[in-house]
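Re: [help] complex structure
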Amino acid sequence: MKSVVFLHYFLGFILLVSHLNSVSSWKKEEFRNCNQTPFCKRARSRKPQHCKLIATDVIIGDGDLTAKLITPKEFQENPDEDSSGIASNPLILSLSVYENGILRMKIDEDASRNPPKKRFEVPDVILPEFESKKLWLQRYTKQVIDGDSADSFVVYLFDGYEAVLRSDPLEVFVREQSSGKRVLSFNSHGLFDFEQLRVKKEGDDWEERFRSHTDSRPYGPQSISFDMSFYGADFVYGIPEHATSLSLKPTKGPGIEESEPYRLFNLDVFEYLHESPFGLYGSIPFMLSHGRTRGTSGFFWLNAAEMQIDVLGSGWDAESSIMLPSDQNRIDTLWMSEAGIVDTFFFIGPKPKDVVKQYASVTGTSAMPQLFATGYHQCRWNYRDEEDVKNVDSKFDEYDIPYDVLWLDIEHTDGKRYFTWDKALFPNPEEMQKDLASRGRRMVTIVDPHIKRDENYHIHKEASKNGYYVKDASGKDYDGWCWPGSSSYIDMVNPDIRSWWADKFAYTQYVGSTPSLYIWNDMNEPSVFNGPERYGTVWTGDNTATWEQLRVSVPMILTLGLTGITFSGADVGGFFGNPDSELLVRWYQVAAYMPFFRGHAHHDTKRREPWLFGEHNTKLMRDAIRVRYTLLPYFYTLFREANVSGVPVTRPMWMEFPDDEATFNNDEAFMVGNGLLVQGVYTEHAKDVTVYLPKDHTWYDLRSGTAYKGGKTQKIEAADAIPVFQRSGTIIPRKDRFRRSTVQMENDPYTLVIAVDSSGEAEGELYIDDGKSYEFNKGAYIHRRFVFSNGTLTSVNLAAGTQFLSDCTIERIILLGHLSKPKSARIEPSNHAAEVELGPLQIQSKIRSSVLTIRKPNVRVSDDWTIKLL
Amino acid sequence: MKIHTSIVAFFVLSSTLVLRSAAFPSNYLLGVAPEDEIYYKGLWSSGTIKCKDGSKTFTKAQLNDDFCDCFDGTDEPGTSACPAGKFYCRNAGHSPVSIFSSRINDGICDCCDGSDEYDGKNKCKITCWEAGKMVRDRLMKEIATFQEGVGIRAHEVEEAKISAAKDEAELSRLKNEEKILKEIVEKLKERKEQIEKAVEKERIQKEQEEKQKKEAEESESKEHKDEDKVDVPEQEPAENTDDDKAGILDNPPPGQNLKEDPAEPAVEVVHNAYASLDIGEENAAQEEEGSKVAHASDPSTGLGSKGEDATKDIDSLSREELGREIGSRWSGKNHEQQHNDFDDVKNNDETSVNAHDEENDGYDTETDEYHHQHYEEDDTEDQMGDVGDEANDDSSSSYKYEPDDEVDMSDIESTSSPSWFETIQRIVRNFLQAVNPFQTPVDTSEVENVRKEYDEASGKLSKTRSRISRLKKKLGNDFGPEKEFYSLYGQCFESKQNKYVYKVCPFKEATQEEGYSRTLLGQWEKFEESYSVMLFSNGDKCWNGPDRSLKVKLQCGLKVQVADVDEPSRCEYEAMLTAPALCLKGKLKELEDELRALNKEQPQLRDEL
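Output below.
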């Protein structure tokens, strides 16, 4: 079975504290700001040219270029105020080069000088196969830059790109070989600082306190900070998770209201705010830049400590004497981390998809989901008992609304003892799951990592007996407080304990589980860093039922997608609070195009299942969910693309239109794959909405078939549905028959929607596998490319030698933008004819569109064929 | 008609054929409901017909060809090609249904005759007979309940008419009383003020006179002082009121007092007038609650006539006597004596106690209920205890509550006897005539007497008014188109579920109780969905949530019972209440028709099988 793990960010201790204190939401004072964080405050107050390090002893060895970073004598004698007393052992810098334009730079303490402790390096994030992509450096060339007193060392990076180590002043950058134009640079403003570990002496007080927390810091402060510059950049993006705009607003600089830096610190935040640089559930220190002239670059710092990142507004360094090449747009950033080492990756791009692919080659691509997981999920804290489950399930059928998964939150357990059931509420869990499964539906139950300290609870008994719990400073089991009361935490860092924990999910051990039961791996904030996309899906946490939060969910999900976590979504309707019917409908309409599509609600909220808001609203929500189901073949194909390449399912527009500046900071519309543009409605009482359609393309409204010229902002009717456009030049596969769930859709025929471009051409892909197993890894899948050209549609096999059988046929082919009016089509090799007529674009749309339709070609999706319009 | 039958025959044939052969359907009218078949006949005559929504035409070849031509699914009644399509399963032996086209050949048997799964991938068992039997049995049970319920309902509607008429009558009588009492009070007030003015005037005059005749007339002023002394206890009337009333409630028959104290007959008359008033009020209060028990006798009548007899005596009294008598009611001495009398009666006078009991015989049960209501809190606990003893975890029960929020039995005073009014009116009229405020010197005892009478009468007035407002409040409720919910007024129905006791009091409130803690789930708001739902809203506020509310779904049942209390959303409760009021004739007919339709299909099924 394909692994489907749903990583949930639920309510944590923060919530608990809030509960006890007051009713109000996010409490600013409970979270540490930069000024209260010594390393951040220190780093932020440093002036350019603070760094006095220079590179010496530059050599090539083991395929890397290495150097020692030392502080010249004159500065050692007069050390800076804030670095007084700090050890000034040389640091070791190494540069490595990997396939496809990736430069890796590491800086750490010199192991040969026996530092008090090895600094922390994050395990498990980098793919094991990444090392095999390393290009062994053979040599460097020397160059003198800007009349430097010392040489700079230049190595090959990629066709047309080279990496440069400048010795004095210390700088590392990537540049285009021919033009010499810089792409990315490190320490160009001299803000690099590396606090080395120390041995505690009498009188050293390194303790740090915030509220009730104390950090003893036994090796002294050990933070690292540096500046990174992105060249040819109009905007920078990434570094989730924050509830902010897609393009990152500057946090510091002239004319910019002083703001907190973007914080990367995993927190389960109760009722988080939109438009805040505050750290949320996951932390991914990967930033992308994009500009019209240069294209896209990326930078990733593999460091899991608390991090703060400033995006510096232009002119921030006006007082410094540093002169960087100023003919290009440049965005400077300041990176500050509390600990760890410098282990960084420079991605050269130059196209947006190149960067995400380069990044994915380091940390991995997203797991291929089971087909059902791409459908609609219905969740609530909590569906109370078996009758409730049965009732909710039957209502979906009563209203003919498809859904695939029903979720049970923490209340289903026996007193929050995970892997158990409340016997009064769920006396027959297996029967309940089987009943759901008889209609093709699955169930998800929640498992949290805190274990109730109850001697009669088998998990606790085993864990405490075997010493599997995380220990506190005194060596005792850490005794925390969460939903079940007094709780301890499984030590997931230990592989043996991990394997023991994994066994708990076996059908034989998890009493009441069946093969249609899946797991919601809740409250795993500490584990959300780069790489979780390889295992599961995530979502944007405990949001709130407001229009602002609907709005911000779009950039949040796009950002997660850019940084590798494509299978994500926001709780439909907003977790806290009660959405009115209009907000809920709009939320469904947008969320239906998001990779992870789940309705969820807090237990204090009113019920909000789609049939509870009157006939009209039920219809609108049903339509939204159904559109998602018709597009599942397209989504599944995109998930496969993400699985192979790392290119996300939902994409910022600039990823598809990197030359169209109007798209660069547009985060209210987004692309699903390369073919669909989705514009949400984020305001009340909207009858229409304006949407920017990227230039050089024609856009077809998927409700009416109306064609719009790109390069303009259009006003589009949006009373009952949000506008979605198919881009000219694409072919999108659909399944237009409605079913209860994905399971019943398996044998249904396909519809292809062809939107031809100005030269009458289009192409698209379709990926099919069994939707449930890993057999696709052994070649059990179908992958076709459909090419339409010169009035002929051809199905090309992209997976020669693979074997997967499907009897599915294509029942309908729709042509948008085709100029002639053919009457029939000839199908080869079967040599039969199909009628061509005018038909609807959406079978159940209210808008009676009339588009060219090839009626019942009935060719099999797994076959090679051509269909020629006559 | 001929065509119609032949199509049916064709359909039956083809569907059985399909079931057996499991082939792709070549039959045209698969999935078409019998009443709809006529629509398709044009396909055979002209070759094309319109989609039902008029959007398009389609040919015979396009009917059920597994490709959607009509938006509304007209051309694909038997396939899943059109999302808007409906598929008709005949379900012989059970009831026919139209299912969503999304169910066709989806691997799940939706029709009990299996006709929705014909692609051969899924073999469905034909279960209509078994399923139909269950439905029929359930229907028959339901019909039986309805049949009986309809009768009970009719009876209740009749009863409600009577009760409502009684309440209306009571209300208009009370209004009338109110009017008169108001007049009396006004007159007394006027008189009181006149007298007070006169007294004041006299006092000033006296002061002046005293100034003038300071030394000479000492003995005269002494006489006055004596009179003042007599009046002293009158200045603390409040102290007496309660005891007085207690005495009044169980007042012995007038004759006895008259005998014991023949010198003061008028006092007793007045007393009796009030006494009868009190008893009458009790009756009225009970009637207001919808007592179904008929009164054995009208207690007020007897007392009223006694009062009438007494009035004759009043008429014959002289002005001075009358004033004195009324005044003496309030003298401490007299009260003490009265109290003693009362004790005597209570302890010794069997006859009088029996007489009282007899009068109340007709509503002894009601009196018990009364007691019950009066100590509502304690009783509730008892009930909870009782319920807890039962083996069943969930249970329901009912009892009556005091409809007025401020329950105070001693307050419920009025009369159901108009004769009392005549009496009191006459007394007051005489009294007013007798007391001449312009006479000097003013008799100070008269001042006090008037004041007392005024206080007493205005007390009565405000009580009458509160009774009126209570009745008005009751009658202002919407009891349903036939007042079929009338009898639920003043009643509560309980359901115990796990640790909670849910209490639903229609037209009042609903609560959830756990031990001593009581949560208001909602106050009565209204009926909804044509009297099939009771809504209680504005209950206690939820932390971080809405105000609590309860929706009670109503169903036909022979007894009034609450069940299935549920909280589908945080602090939004739902419950089920069965009541005969919901046993509607129309619904019964529907059920009977449904059963008849089901039974009709049976033999055919047998044939086919």
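Residues 373 and 860 of chain A are 26 Å apart (CA to CA).
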